[in-house]
TrEMBL record:
Entry's family note: Belongs to the TTC39 family.
Pfam families linked: Iml2-TPR_39
Keywords: Lipid metabolism, Repeat, TPR repeat
Known function: Regulates high density lipoprotein (HDL) cholesterol metabolism by promoting the ubiquitination and degradation of the oxysterols receptors LXR (NR1H2 and NR1H3).
Protein name stated in the entry: Tetratricopeptide repeat protein 39B
Bias-annotated ranges (Polar residues): 30-40
GO biological process: cholesterol homeostasis; lipid metabolic process; negative regulation of cholesterol storage; regulation of cholesterol efflux; regulation of cholesterol metabolic process
UniProt-listed PANTHER family: TETRATRICOPEPTIDE REPEAT PROTEIN 39 FAMILY MEMBER, TETRATRICOPEPTIDE REPEAT PROTEIN 39B
Region annotated Disordered, chain positions: 1-40
Organism whose genome encodes this protein: Sciurus vulgaris (Eurasian red squirrel)
Organism phylogeny: Eukaryota, Metazoa, Chordata, Craniata, Vertebrata
Tagged with keyword Repeat: yes
């Protein structure tokens, strides 16, 4: 069913607007100057939020246009909107919205670079922002008060400025919690981060209740739509993200006061996106991230491209050379199967900005996978090598991928690169990192697979189709399913590996390798609408369960694929039963959490009619 189109309330066919709607006569709260002093002005040029989004979404148009046309004419000094935004630190000491805007930019830098010093700067900026917001909060805050704020009388105890302070405080608290998790891996920081998230969640819940009372009693204030936008963004994002979690985690979180509803979360974000608040772009970007990334990696791979395109269109119109807009445009084209078009847009995305090299790395990652889909191994190697050299997000994953891609090349081509595949695989274990006291699941997976090249073994045991295995892990077969030609080419490669295995001497890894090949072959056959042959491949893996020695993840993941095969043939009850078997009967295998996310997403869709 087609997705509902976002209401045109504040945007319609036109570009997103920054100016708030006019206040309502007789509205409650202080005079406009109260929030104007916090730089939430009715003049767009004075609002840090819009200045920030103008840079983040579109950036410096003259510099970008020069990059696109290749002009040799030297341009006059062009103001750097990003630097201007950072220079608002003096205002951030007195203005809650400048504090929020400035600290958000610093946190984005920390997330992009993953440098410890940038993470520390982000935490420090958030501490300052929280202090600024605290100055405007009521002494007895929304969450700390045991009295209900839902009556008309108690609602009036909060001024308009104090209500905005609660929203800004909750946003800052949530961002600080995220940085706390990656700052250090000790348990105290983990607990601190969890408590901050819970406090932020409670503030959003109370603010949503206040918003409902305001709407019921028509207490629209001068900056009501900004408050509404903050509430929609926070509660919508919380509902959406919590709904993605596996069932057992949701039950635990509900016990301590959390709850998540996917349809409600998407509805709140859509309402926020259709408004005119400075948070409207963030609501749009959150939905876009859900449709173009989260649904693929942690979901079923069934993406709502129609809504994603509808949301992106006005931003792409206003910011045609904005790197973020181009990136989402490329992702949407990729998910539609227009791989060559996506390739060109990702390259354009790289060319239009130089401020954040880390954004280039996102494009390198995407281009690497596109070349893997096309089995252009030398080009895939080129981008994996760039990631190894430039990006610090996950060195272990990048090095493993580079080695895996080189493994797909003929030996003479590998020699030409001056790389040593065995040496690369042996580097993986020493590059893994820990976040919030935990190793990254994809890094743990890479480390386990790379053990076949350990120097402690008599000789390296070559991995079978390692690049295609990683492609499967990242749900790449869902993208390739849109392209029959690529699926057929992949099937040829898999069948060649299958034939080669039959000629090899039996070893401890033989059954594992055979089952991996059967899983990959089944995925190719499923994409090519050959269900009977695909089912035979999947059943072979399931029946080999007790013979597997290392790659125990293969059976539950194969059951997941088998469930989708049954669902495509209309056998929903049978598909649900297989999913529940995969969820309940297996544990302690590689990438278990990722599969549980996907199972949760599938059960959510299949057990009740879609609201979309």
């Amino acid at each position: 069913m087609d997705a509902p189109r976002v209401q045109s309330g504040g945007r319609g066919k036109h570009a997103p607007e920054c100016a708030p709607r006019p206040g309502v006569a007789g509205s409650a709260g202080p005079q406009p100057s109260s929030l104007t002093s916090s730089w939430l002005s009715t003049q767009p040029r004075n609002r840090v939020g819009c200045q920030f989004f103008a840079w983040f979404l579109g950036g410096s148009s003259r510099r970008r246009n020069m990059a696109l046309v290749g002009s040799r004419v030297e341009l006059e000094a062009d103001e750097d909107i990003f630097e201007d935004a950072l220079e608002t630190i003096s205002m951030a000491k007195e203005s809650m919205y400048h504090a929020l805007g400035y600290s958000t930019i610093v946190v984005l830098q920390a997330v992009m670079t993953f440098e410890q010093q940038d993470i520390q700067k982000g935490i420090s900026a958030m501490k300052d922002a929280l202090q600024t917001c605290q100055k405007y909060r009521k002494k007895c805050t929304v969450v700390e008060s045991f009295s209900s704020l839902l009556s008309r009388g108690s609602l009036e105890q909060l001024s308009e400025e104090e209500m905005h302070a609660e929203i800004c405080y909750a946003e800052c608290l949530l961002q600080k919690a995220a940085l706390t998790f990656v700052q250090d891996e000790n348990m105290i920081n983990f607990i601190k981060g969890g408590l901050k998230i819970r406090t932020s969640y409670q503030i959003y819940k109370e603010c949503l209740s206040i918003l409902h009372v305001m709407q019921k009693n028509k207490l629209e204030q001068e900056f009501f739509y900004e408050f509404e936008g903050g509430v929609k963004l926070g509660t919508g994002a919380f509902n959406l993200m919590l709904s993605l979690l596996p069932a057992r985690i949701i039950r635990l979180l509900e016990f301590i006061g959390f709850s998540g509803n996917r349809e409600l979360g998407l509805l709140q974000l859509r309402e926020g996106a259709s408004g005119r608040s400075m948070r409207s772009p963030l609501c749009c970007l959150t939905i876009l991230a859900f449709h173009t990334y989260i649904s693929l990696i942690l979901g079923t791979g069934e993406v709502n491209v129609v809504e994603a395109e509808s949301l992106l269109a006005p931003f792409l119109q206003q910011f045609p050379n904005g790197s973020l807009m181009l990136f989402y445009h490329a992702r949407i084209e990729l998910l539609k199967g227009n791989i060559e078009e996506a390739q060109e847009i990702f390259r354009k995305c790289i060319s239009v900005q130089e401020e954040w090299k880390q954004f280039h790395h996102l494009c390198y990652w995407e281009l690497m996978w596109i070349y893997v889909f096309q089995q252009n191994w030398m080009q895939a190697y080129y981008y994996s090598d760039l990631l190894c050299k430039e990006s610090k997000w996950s060195k272990a994953t990048y090095v493993f991928l580079k080695a895996a891609i080189l493994s797909m090349l003929p030996e003479e081509d590998v020699v030409a690169t001056n790389e040593n595949v065995v040496t690369l695989f042996r580097q993986v274990d020493g590059l893994k990192q820990r976040i919030a006291g935990k190793s990254l699941p994809t890094e743990k997976f890479a480390v386990r697979k790379a053990r076949r090249y350990s120097p402690s073994l008599p000789a390296p045991v070559k991995l079978i189709l390692p690049a295609l295995e990683m492609m499967y892990v990242w749900n790449g077969f869902s993208i390739v399913s849109k392209r029959k030609d690529l699926s057929e080419n992949l099937l040829v490669t898999v069948e060649m590996a299958e034939a080669a295995l039959q000629n090899e001497t039996f070893s401890d890894y033989s059954v594992d390798d055979e089952c991996l090949v059967k899983l990959l072959k089944g995925c190719c056959l499923k994409n090519l609408q050959r269900p009977l042959q695909a089912e035979l491949c999947f059943n072979h893996v399931v029946e080999s369960e007790k013979l597997l020695k290392y790659d125990h993840y293969l059976v539950p993941f194969t059951l997941f694929e088998l469930a989708f095969l049954y669902k495509s043939q209309g056998e929903i009850d049978k598909a649900i039963k297989v999913l529940e078997t995969a969820r309940n009967n297996y544990k302690d295998y590689s990438l278990e959490s990722r599969l549980h996310f996907r199972i949760q997403a599938a059960l959510h869709l299949w057990k009740k009619p879609s609201s979309d």
